[in-house]
Amino acid sequence: MKKQYESKGIYVIMEEDVYSEGCQPDSISDYYMETDFAGDTIPEIIKAIKDFHEVDDDAVLLDSCDEVGRIEVQRLEDEIGCAASRREIAEWKEGKRKLFLANYAHYVELVTREAVSLIV
Known about the structure:
Distance between the termini: 21 Å
Oligomer: single chain
Strand content: over 45%
Number of domains: 1
């Protein structure tokens, strides 16, 4: 019997984040990404998700929103969905650049695969 941790798809919520005012509720957009992750251990799948989003531990929430198995990744992004650079973040703090807070929700499940007899 093979056990593996899997996350199927990513639910994404984005909203404009104004440094002096916070997130702007009237700017919310959401979508679903058909991107899957797998790992033989929990640390392995967490690492795969962090690597995909190019974030460190500070940007990752485990069992987010009190949901067991939910990994949420948060990062600031530019208008085309690229992670904001240090320069862009400095400009955003000065009110010279528009950035968006992106929340990526992953739901991790333990999957067990076992061969079954097809003869009944």
